[in-house]
Amino acid sequence: MLFLARLAVVLTLMLATFTGAGATEKPFLHQGIAADAKRYEAYLKANWKPDGKTPAALKSEAEKVFATDPRAASRSLANAVAADEKDSAAWTRLAEALLAIKPDPQGGERYDLPIYASGAAYRGYQRAADDAQKAHALYVLGRTLEARSYWRPAIDALSLSLSLADDQTTREMYDRLRGEYGFRMTDYKTDNDATPPRLCLQFSEDLSRTQTDVAKFISVGGKDPQNLVQDGKQLCLEGLKYGERYQVQIRAGLPSDIGETLLKTSDIAVYVPDRSAFVRFGGKAYVLPARGQQGIPVITTNTNKIDVEVYRIGDRGLATTLQSGDMQRQLSSYDVDNIRDRSGIKVYAGQMDITSKLNEEVSTAVPVTDATGKLEPGVYVMIAKPSEKIKEDSYERATQWFIVSDLGLTAFTGNDGVHALVRSLSDTTAVAGTSVKLIAKNNEVLATATTDERGYAKFDAA
Question: Phi then psi for 357, rounded to 5 degrees?
Fold first, then answer.
């Protein structure tokens, strides 16, 4: 029993020692700053020599002129760390001297000195022997990073410094930087084109992925929000209404993914405007019969009139259109100009009235043949946009590709060649005597075949 008791004591001491080692502070790590420190140390070793003076004498010389001539002090301290690279205090003091130098306005010192200083402070932190040295080196490192506008690393360095030693100067600097550049709401915007509209709040850091009850930090008109969608740095409030005003409060304490919480409560007044004028088509491709009803549905929002253009793609331009993938996507303004100037033939340009309902999507059939007259079989593209002037002209255009034909073509390949089947779109019967061309990517006609009574044509393998 005595042996077991002693063993328990030993295990307890070992566990305590291990726990203490594991409970040490998380070290400050930053690849960019570490690289700066490595380059600066290599530069000092290559270019600075102690000239027979001891590191202690060099540090003493530096302190005598530090207040009046920090540039001279930095030279002595550079020699000191070149002589003794493990001297944490000399590294940290060198960083302070570099920060104190008034940079030459004609050169690049105002950029270089903070970089050298952060490298020196980082080495001072790495070579520190105790918590007091580490805390002071991290404070100086925070100052150098502030000079470089490295706000988040500066805050992290100061936070770690305070965890090692609670210093009033460090705390004041930490509170100031965290208040200005720490976790905070940076912007907000209403998305009035969503259905229903929503308000999206932007934050400087990712929101906590472990906090599930985010709603308790948000209120809309004094009430809990209907629905919240969290995505990285963005938090969206959904279920709003067009034309309504809202008072939204974001409460202090909202957690981030880096461990910081929102310091201050923010109140914002939001107005959700009506939806922007908008036009879109329901699908990527549409087949119009050569006879009968020829209307293409267009979906609009908050517009009473739309501008419509229809272009026919010439046979010589079909291969290029298919290869580019234009028929599988919405066209850009550049693509429209290219069709207008090169590959397309304009068959119609005009306006169409729309019966609009405020903030609702309205589907209207564009009477193609009524506007254009009889359309020849072929491939067409219709482009539409609101006639009203809008603030931002979208890069993409509402695009509807459509084919005018009574023939449906199915083609597939095999080891023995390419097989084609042609049927009527009106009654699905096979169509005989139809000429089918096999066209290469470069628009060259490789072969021509005529369908038999089964509507079948074959192109032998090359």
Answer: -125, 130
